[in-house]
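[job 4417] fold queue: 2 targets
>>> target A
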Amino acid sequence: MDQPSGRSFMQVLCEKYSPENFPYRRGPGMGVHVPATPQGSPMKDRLNLPSVLVLNSCGITCAGDENEIAAFCAHVSELDLSDNKLEDWHEVSKIVSNVPHLEFLNLSSNPLSLSVLERRCAGSFAGVRKLVLNNSKASWETVHTILQELPDLEELFLCLNDYETVSCSPVCCQSLKLLHITDNNLQDWTEIRKLGIMFPSLDTLILANNNLTTIEESEDSLARLFPNLRSINLHKSGLHCWEDIDKLNSFPKLEEVKLLGIPLLQSYTTEERRKLLIARLPSIVKLNGSIIADGEREDSERFFIRYYMEFPEEEVPFRYHELVTKYGKLEPLAVVDLRPQSSVKVEVHFQDKVEEMSIRLDQTVAELKKHLKTVVQLSTSNMLLFYLDQEAPFGPEEMKYSSRALHSYGIRDGDKIYVEPRMK
C-alpha cells in the first residue's frame, strides 16, 4: 500500500505514538510520558515517546510545528527518518534543531540531493555522533559541510551514493572512527587514499562492493595514511594479486580483515584461501569474522611453507623465507587416503580351480553370487559361499545372509572365498 504523501514529522509522530498504537507502560526503558502544561498541546498528555524514534517509510516531507517537536522530543537520542520524502535540508534542520540530545540520525533514501545544505542548517546537527546518508545521493560538498559542523561525529554511512570519486574536505575530521562506504564505484586507489587524508583517526573502513582493483601505495605511505586503522572490509572488491594483500601489513594497527569474493581467491579451495591469508597477514586476529586461534595460525604458516616449497625461486613470496626462518624447512606431508576401500582382489576357490577376482565391496552377498554364477557354473540358489580371512584363526565363515553388504565382512586384498554346491 502506498504511503500518504505530504505529511509532517509531527503529524506522523502523533499518529504512530498515540495511546491506541503505542500504549504507555510503566517501568524502566518503556518510554517517556510528557505531561500537559497550560501552554502545551492537548495531545501532550496523551503521547508516550521512547528515546528511540523509528519513523521510516511514513511519507514525511516537512517538519511541522517546531514547538511541538521541542516539547515531545527533548529526551530523544536516536531518530530513524529513512525512506521518507524529505528533500529540503531546511525541513530536516527544523526537526533536528528541536531534538537537543540527538546522537543517531538516519536519513537514508530521502531525496536530499535536490537541495543545498547550508552551514547554518548543518549547525543544528552538531551533537550527532552517528549519521546515515545511504542512498541519499548526498554530494561531497554536502558531506564536507556536515563534517565542518559536526565536531563529535564518530560514524558516517555513505553507501549506495553512486560515488566514483572522492572529493577531499578542506579540513580533516579528527573525530570519525567508522566510515561505511559500500556499494559505490570507487575503483582507483587514489580515491581511497583521500579518505585516509580526511579521516586520520579512522578505526574501521568498510569498502565492500566497490571494484577497487589494486592498492597503489608504498608501505611507508600506507602507514601514514591510515595510522589508526584497526579493521578493513574489502569484500567483493576487485583485488587480484597477492602483493595487494601483503600491503595490508603496512597498516600499523590492523587487526581485522574481510576479504571474501575477490578475484584473487577464486581459484583456491576454502581451506587454501583461509590458510594462505592468515599466513600472509601475521598481525591480524580476525579474518572474515572468525577469530584466529594460536593453533590455527601455526597450522596456516606451516601449510604456507609446504604450499610454496616446490615453486620456482622467482615465484616464492618473501613471506615464505620469513616462515622458513621461524619453523625451518619442513618435510612434505605424507598423502594418506582415508577413504574406505571400494574393491578388493580375492581368490575364488571352487573344486580344484582357483581364480583371482576383483570384487566390489558395496554389493551384497546375493549380488556377488550373481557375479560368480558364470565362473563356477552354479545357479545362485545352489551356491554356498564361505569367506576366509587370511589372518583369522577360526576358519572360513559362511556368507549366509543374502542382503548383507560385503564391506561388513572386512574383506581385504588376498582373502579367499570358497564356493560349494548346496547339498540336495
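>>> target B
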Amino acid sequence: KLAGCTLFITGASRGIGKAIALKAAKDGANIVIAAKTAETHPTLPGTIYTAAAEIEAAGGKALPCIVNVREEQQIIDAVEKAVKTFGGIDILVNNASAISLTGTLETETKKVNLMMEVNVRGTYLTSKTCLPYLKKSRNPHILNLSPPMNMNPVWFKNHCAYTISKYGMSMCVLGMAEEFRGEVAVNALWPKTAIHTAAMDMLGGSGIEKQCRKTDIIADAAYCILTKPKSFTGNFIVDEDLLREEGVKDFDAYAIVPGHPLMPDFFLDVEGDKKLSGSQQEGPSGAKASSPVAETFRVIQGTMNEEYVRTIQGVYQFELSGDDGGTWYIDLKTKSGSAGFGKPPVTADVVMSMSSTDFVKMFTGKLNPTMAFMSGKLKIKGNMSLAIKLEKMLTKLNSKL
C-alpha cells in the first residue's frame, strides 16, 4: 500500500521512528531518516546510516539526513533533498521528542527549552516545511506521536513542562487537521502501554522492559492510519484501540514478556486502586504497630545487609498520607543500614511522597514504582538515579514481603 510513497520521519534512527520506517519499507516505500545521530552514541543504539541499511534490507529506499529539529535550516535542507531525491513527500511522521520528568522547580531552563523546541516548535516547523509538498500528494498524511489532551491535573503536577510540550504537539494536530481538511490528513498516535525503547530503559532502569510492549504495535497502528484516505483526519488514536477495531485479537504477540502486567503510558487515566484495610492500633512513637506499613518496614529492616548499603549508598525518606501516614525512612548509607518510623538519622538523598496504601503495594510488588510515578501516585524529590536504585532493591525484597 505504501510502495513508492515517500515518508519523512523525524527521530527515525532508533526506537518507534525506526519501527514505523521498517514497516513502510516492507511495502517498498522511500524513507527520509531525519535524525541527529550520525556517529555512534556511547549509550544509545543506531545511527541514521545503520537505520538506512536496515530500511534498504527490508525492501525500501533510504535517505539519511542529519536533522536536529531545533534548527530550521536543517529541516529545510533535508526536505529539499528529499524532494530532489524522491520527487516529493507523501507522509510526515513527527516522532522526534525530548523528555524530562521533573517538577517546575527542578526543571532547568535548558531542559524546558529543549522540550519546547523539539516537541512543539520542531513539530510545527517540520510540518510547515513539508506541507507545500504534502498538498501535492494523492493521499498525504501528517502523523504526530502525541497523546490525547487529557486535562486531568495529575498529568501536569509532576512534570508540567513535559506535559505542555507534548500537548503542544497534539494542538498542532487539532489546528492543522481543521486548517488543511480535505487536503492533508493530520492525526495523533499514542501507545496505551509503555513501549520498550532506549528512552524507556533510561527512565525505568533495568527490568522495565518486562512491563512494555515492542515498538511493532506502534508501527502496525501507524501503518493502519497512513494507509487510510486523507478524509481520516483530526483523530487522537490509541494504538491498541485502533488495532482492536481492525480485528487484531492477539496482543500477547506485542509484549516483551507475554502475560506480564503492562505499564500504562502517560496521559491515559487508569482506574484508581481500592484501599487496603489494616489495623489502626497505635504503637510506640505514634506509628501504627501492626499496620501494613509498619510490617513492611519491619521486613525491610530484617533484610538489611552491608551489600545493599555498599551498592546503593542512599538515604530515603517517605512522607506517607492516609491511615498509616507519617514520616518513615530507609538508610542505606550509614553503617549496616536501618529503616523505621520518623526522620532518617542523616539528611535524605531522596524524598518520596505517596499514600500508605500505595507504599505497601509498591513494596509488595503489586504496584510498579515507575508506573506509580508516571500516574502521579508517587512524587519524588532529590536524586532520581538513587530512586531507580531503590527499585532494583525492591525486586529482591518482593518475595520476602
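[job 4417] complete. Note on B: The chain has two domains: 6-254, 292-398.
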